[in-house]
Automatic annotation (TrEMBL):
Pathway: Carbohydrate biosynthesis. GO terms for molecular function: fructose 1,6-bisphosphate 1-phosphatase activity. This is Fructose-1,6-bisphosphatase class 1. It comes from the Bacteria. Keywords: Carbohydrate metabolism, Cytoplasm, Hydrolase, Magnesium, Metal-binding. It comes from Ohtaekwangia kribbensis. Its main location: cytoplasm.
Length: 340
């Protein structure tokens, strides 16, 4: 006798409660969205995968940092004049190696090096990276991050790298994002079609899509600024900070750009690193810090300025150029600009 199959009683693999679905891996997501790229040849996809791979290695080092002797300063200073922490150096090596092996990148600008590194001259992409941002937090087990910014090179592949390849406006980025080494590790990136966030699952060694199509709330109640420097803020900044207090906003300043940015991205808020008497051009770096986060912010519906001008419209004049930085919820950034 032939048995009939009752489809209604057959448990679906997709909806089974025995094993909850765990969502798309970063790899699969990148692949399935590859057609959105202006140059859909697969190289940008590979580059993003290289970044993800290096970040997993850095994540491992960050997590065991307290256990072995890789914490503390290495004894030299980077171009920005900061003491180089060992993990900064290590992260720089990890990212540079992964990107060099991948072969898609012709030139790499890093916070940790005075000039750009030539990688594969046939590569079509330029990358600017802060391998480990928030270095003063490394020794105290506070969240730190990696920031990356990717451009298409302007000169033909195989020819010497030109200034125009390196010093591009943020608006020319083809992709950008960050990795947050926090209570969990996340990679958040955009290729100009919205922002997606992936959480790292350490036992599987994979990033999974956890925050699809991230949107930054248009308003918020958190302001992040180092008020210890308030005496050297310009008058409009002082007034805006007072405005935040009058509004009974909450002050939250981790002092780790990626972490402060990420919190504001999820909950709404504004991060400000203004020009100060000590740092008349601000402290943060345009090419490998602000541009990437400005691109992510705009893609999520937020805004980023230097107090008056859109960050992404600034034409950089030098690799380690600084800028004042106001980033976060659109209405809050607009309001801060109205005090200028
Ligand atoms: P750090 O010097 O620790 O690397 O990018 C530089 C940065 O950290 C940001 O991550 C952070 O928001 C800011 O500087 C903190 O600077 P202050 O200590 O001057 O507030």
């Amino acid at each position: 006798m032939q048995r009939s199959i009752n489809k209604a009683n057959t448990p679906s693999i997709e909806t089974s409660r025995i094993a909850q679905p765990i969502g798309s891996t970063l790899d699969r997501f990148i692949k399935s969205n590859q057609d959105q790229f202006a140059y859909a040849s697969g190289e940008l996809s590979q580059l993003l995968r290289d970044i993800a791979l290096a970040s997993k290695v850095v994540n491992r080092e960050v997590n065991k940092a307290g256990l072995i002797d890789i914490m503390g300063a290495v004894g030299s200073q980077n171009m920005a004049g900061d003491d180089q922490q060992k993990l900064d150096v290590l992260a720089n090596i990890r990212f540079t190696r992964a990107l060099a092996k991948g072969g898609e990148v012709c030139a790499l600008v890093s916070e940790e090096a005075d000039t750009f590194a030539d990688l594969n001259n046939e590569g079509k992409y330029v990358i600017a990276i802060d391998p480990l941002d928030g270095s003063s937090n490394i020794d105290v087990n506070v969240s730190i991050g990696t920031i990356f910014s990717i451009y298409r090179r302007k000169s033909p592949a195989g020819t010497p790298i030109q200034q125009e390849d390196i010093l591009q406006r943020g608006a020319d980025q083809v992709a950008a994002g960050y990795v947050l080494y926090g209570s969990s590790t996340m990679m958040v990136y955009t290729t100009g079609h919205g922002v997606n966030g992936f959480t790292y699952e350490p036992t599987l060694g994979e990033y999974f899509l956890s925050h699809p199509d991230m949107r930054m709330p248009a308003d918020g109640k958190v302001y992040s600024i180092n008020e210890g420097s308030a005496n050297s803020f310009a008058q409009p900044v002082k007034e805006y900070v007072q405005y935040c207090k009058d509004q009974k906003y909450t002050a939250r300043y981790i002092g780790s750009l990626v972490a402060d940015f990420h919190r504001n991205m999820l909950k709404g808020g504004i991060y400000i690193y203004p020009a100060t008497a000590k740092d008349p051009n601000g402290k943060l770096r345009l090419i490998y810090e602000c541009n990437a986060l400005a691109f992510v912010a705009e893609q999520a519906g937020g805004k980023a300025t230097n107090g008056s001008m859109r960050i992404l419209d600034i034409v950089p004049e030098s690799l380690h150029q600084r800028t004042a930085f106001y980033v976060g919820s659109k209405n809050m950034v607009d309001k801060s600009g109205s005090f200028a």
